[in-house]
Amino acid sequence: MESRLPKPKIGVKKETNSVSKIVSSESSSSLNLPESTNSTATLKDYGKSKSGINLRGAALTKENKMPTKSTTMVRSKTMATISRPNTGVGNASKVGVKRPGTQSTNPIETKRPNIRPIARAAASNNVGVSGKSLKPTGKTATTKPLPTKVSKWDWKTKYEILHKDFSSLKEKHKETSEKHDELQIIVDDLSHNQNSNVNKIEMLETKNNELSLELKKLSTDNKDLIITNEKLQIDLKHLELSLEKTSEELKKHEKLCKKQEKIIEDMTIHNTELKINLDNEIKIKNELTLKVNDSQRLLHQMDKDRRILHNTIQEMKGNIRVFCRVRPKIQKEEDKPMCTINYIDECTLEIARFDNSDSSSGCGAKARGARQEFSFDKVFPPTATQSDVFEELSMLVQSALEGYNVCVFAYGQTGSGKTYTMEGSYEPEYEGMIPRTVRHIFEEMKEFQLLGWEYKIEASFLEIYNEHIVDLLDFNQKTHEIRMVDNKAKDLYVTNLFVEEIESPEELHKCLRIAQQNRAVAATKCNDRSSRSHSVARIRLIGTHEKNQERSVGNLNLVDLAGSERLKDEAIARQTETKNINKSLSNLGNVILALLKKQDHVPYRNSKLTHLLMPSLGGNSKTLMLLNISPLDDCFNETLNSLRFASNVNSCKTGNIKRSKTIIQ
Description:
Blueprint lengths: L15 H16 L7 H11 L1 H14 L56 H4 L30 H163 L2 E7 L13 E4 L4 E5 L19 E4 L2 E3 L5 H16 L4 E7 L5 H5 L10 H18 L2 E13 L2 E4 L10 E3 L7 E3 L5 E3 L2 H14 L2 E2 L7 E2 L2 E12 L4 E11 L14 H23 L10 H5 L1 H4 L4 E8 L6 H15 L10 E3 L2
Parallel strand pairs: 1-5, 1-16, 6-15, 6-16
Antiparallel strand pairs: 2-3, 3-4, 7-8, 7-11, 7-14, 9-10, 12-13, 14-15, 15-17
Helix pairs in contact: 1-2, 1-3, 1-5, 2-3, 6-8, 8-9
Organism: Microctonus aethiopoides
Protein name: Kinesin motor domain-containing protein
InterPro entries: Kinesin-like_fam, Kinesin_motor_dom, Kinesin_motor_dom_sf, P-loop_NTPase
C-alpha cells in the first residue's frame, strides 16, 4: 500500500566530500597555494607549519562527518515503506515493521493518534540523528526536544529533524563561506605578495649575478692587493730603515739648526747694525754724489782749460815740427867709415865728413873737413830709444784725441831707419811709433771715459806706389780716388777703401802686420829691403760726450815715406819708381815752402801724397817730420840734402790752428 505522504524533495547525501572540499578551499585560500593537482599534498605540508588552521579543519570534518554505516532509503513494493538512516544513539538501529492493516476493505487508513514520545536522556545532550553533537543556536529554550524514537510513518518529525539538520548545515555553510572569503582574500594577498616576491627574487638574482662578478673582481683585486701589500711591507721595512737613518740625520740637523739659530741671531744683530751703517752710507753717498757732480762740472771745465793750455803749448812749440834722429851703426857696417857728428845741444847738431874720405862730390863749395850746423825742434842721437822718440810724439797723439788733425811722417834717404822708427819690430821694447800710438790711444781713452767721453776708432792702411793708391788690407784690386767730404775741403776720404773698426790694440797690430806684408819693397844699393812706396796709416778718432752733447773728430796720419836717393847707372832698372818717389817728395817740399811763404795757392794736387795729406799739412793741423839720417860717410851727400830739406820745413809757420768740434743736435 502506497503512502499518501509526499516524497521527500531533499535527499540525504554523503557530506564528507563537500565538507572536505570546503575545508580544502578554506585552507588553500588561507595559505595562498597555487592551483594544481597536488593541492592536498601542499595542504599537508602547510598543515605541519600552520597548526591552528589544520586543527580547525579537522574539527570541521569531524563535526560534519556522517555516520559510517548508512542505509539508503528504499521504497517497498507497495511504496508504503521508506528506509531511513539509523537515528538511534550509538550503534542501535531499528527496522521498520509492517503494520497489519485492517481486514476491512476501507481504503482510507485511519489516522494515527499524534502521540509524542518521551525524550530520552540522549536528546537532552543535544545529540542529532546522525549521532553528532550540535552547537547551541541560542534558541534552546523555545525549541522542543525531538523524540528519540520516530515512527516510520511520522513524517513530520522526520521533516523537522531534517529541516533542523539542514538549517545547521546552512549556518555552517554560511560560516565556511565567510571563512572561505576571508581565506580567499588572504590567498589573493599571498598571490600578490608572491608576484612581488618573484620580482624581488629576479632582482635579487640579477643583483646576485652582479655581486658574483664584483666578487670575482674583488677576488682578483684582493690578490693584487695581497701582492702589493707584500711589496709595501718590503718597502715599509726599507722605509723604516731609512726612517731610522733620517731620524739620526734629523737629530744632527737639529743640532746644526740650533747652532744656525744662534748664528742667525748674531747676524740679525749685525744686520741691524749694517742697516744703520747703510743708512749713514746712503746719506754720505748722496752728499758725495752732489760733490761728485760738482767736481765733474769743475773737472770738465778744468779739462777744457787743460786742452786750451795744451794746444797753446803745442802752438808755441810749432805747428810744423821737425825731429832729427841719427840711427846707430849696425853690425855689417862696422868696417865702414862714419861721418863726424857733434851734438851741440838737444836741438842742434854739427856734421862733417870723415877726414880720409873723398870730397869730390856732395858739398860743392864746402871744403874738406868743413862742419855744417843744423837746428831742429829735437835731435835724437843713436843712443836714443823708441820710447824716447814716442815721448815727444805722445803730445801730438793727445791733440788728435782732443779733435785736432795730426800728421806724422818719417823722411830720409834709403836705409836711414824710417820703417824701423814708424813700425819697429814685434818685441815690446823695439815697437815703433804706430804700435805705441795705438797703445797710448787706448790708455788715454780709459782716462777720458772718467770724464764722460766715449771713443770710436776706425783704421785704414794704404800705400802710394807710382802715384797709385793701393789698399793694404784688401787683396782685391780696386780703383781708389781721393774725394772731399764737403765743399769746404775740411776733410778728405778715399773711395773703395777698407776701413775697420778697432776694439783693442791687438786688432790694430794684426792689421799692421798684414799691411807690412802687402807693402811694395825691393832691394837697392843702399838697402836690401827698401820701401818703394809711401805707406800711410790713417786712424780716425771719434769722441762723444753724451752729457754735454759734444762730439769731436780727430784724424791721425802716420806716414812712412819712401827713401830719397839719386839715380845712378846701376839703378836704371828701378828708374820709374825712383822718379815717382823723388817727384812726390819734391812736391811735398813745394807745399811746405808755399805754406812757409804764405802763398795764396798751395800745390796740394801736384801729387797723390800731398793731396791725401792736405788736411794735415796746413790750416787745421799739426805736423811732425821725423827726419832719419844715416851716420855712414858714404851717405854723407844724401844726409846733407835731407838735413837741408828738414831745416827749410822747420822754418815754416802755419799760424794758429782750430780744433774740430761739433755740437750734437
